[in-house]
Write a structure and sequence with these properties.
Order of helices and strands of chain B: HHHH
Largest sheet of chain B: none
Oligomer: heterodimer
CATH architecture of chain A: Up-down Bundle
Number of helices of chain B: 4
Order of helices and strands of chain A: HHHHHH
Strand content of chain B: under 5%
Radius of gyration of chain A: 22 Å
Largest interface: A-B, 43 and 45 residues
CATH topology of chain A: Four Helix Bundle (Hemerythrin (Met), subunit A)
Amino acid sequence: MSETEITLDAGHAAALEPSPYALQSKKLTMWLFIISDAITFGAILFGYAYLRIGTPNWSTPFHFSPNIVNGLIMTFVLLSSSLTMLAADAAAKQGRKSSCLKWLGATVVLGIVFATLHLREWSHMFEEGWSLSTNPLGGSVQFGATFFSITGLHLMHVISGIIALIVIAIGYNTDWLDAGHVETTGLYWHFVDLVWMFVFPLLYLMNVAR
Amino acid sequence: METNHEPGMKEYIAIWVGLLCIVGIEAFLTSMNLSTHGLLVSLLVLAFIEAGIGLLYFMHLRYEKPNLFWSLVPAVIFVLFMMNHIWPDAYRMLNLRVPIQ
C-alpha cells in the first residue's frame, strides 16, 4: 500500500488537499522571493527617481556613444539570455537533457558577457573619477551613490544567477535535480532581466547629457 | 487570464523582438528634447509594458492558475503605490532639519 493510500484510508484527505496555486513548493517559494525582491528594487528605484527629480545640480554624464550604445548592447545580451533560458526550460520539460544543457550554457555565457560589459563600464567610470561619494563634474554626488548602488545590486543578482545556473546545470546533468529546478531558476533569471527593464531607462537614459 | 498551453519558441522570439523594439523606442525618446518629468513618465510607462510582457509570457504568469496572479500582483502594486505616497514625506523631513551653519 502506498503512502498516499495509507493517508486516505486513515481519513486524512485534508492533508492531500491540492495547492490553490497548483505549483510545486519550490516554484511558489521562488515567486514569493521574486515579489519581495521586486519590492526591494521598487523602493530603491522610487528613492532614486525622487532624488533625480528633486536634486537641482544633478549630473547627466552619459552620451549616446559610448554609454548608451554600451547599455543597449547589455540590454540586448540580457534579453537574449532570457530567450536561451526559455529554450533550456522547454528542453528540460521535454526531457531533452543535452539540448537543455546547451541552452543553459548559452545563458551562462550571455550572463558572463553582461557582467563583463558592466564591470568594464564601471572601470571606465572609476578612471574618470566617479565613485559612491565623488563627482568629477562637480555636481551632486548623489548620481554616483545611486548609480553604483542600484547597478551594483542588480549586478549582484546577475552573478548570483550565473552561479545558480551552473549549479542547476551540473545537478540536472547528474539527475540530482529535475526540470522543475530548471524552470524555477529560469523564473529568477527572467526576473533579473525584468528589473533591468527599469534600471536601464531610469539610470542610463535619464542621465544622458542634453 | 486562463490556464492553457505555453507558447512555443516562435512566439517567444516574436515577444523578444517586441521587447527589443520597445527598448529602441526608449532610446529614441531620449534623443528627443522632452522635459525631465516627461521623459521619466514616458520611460516608466514603457518599462511597465515591458515588465508586464516579461511577467505574463517569459515568466509564464499568464499560464498559471489565476489565483497566483491575484495573490501576488495586486499586493505588489499596493505596496509600490503606498511607497509612492510616503516618499514625498522625506522632503518634509528634510525641511524640518536644523540648517547646518
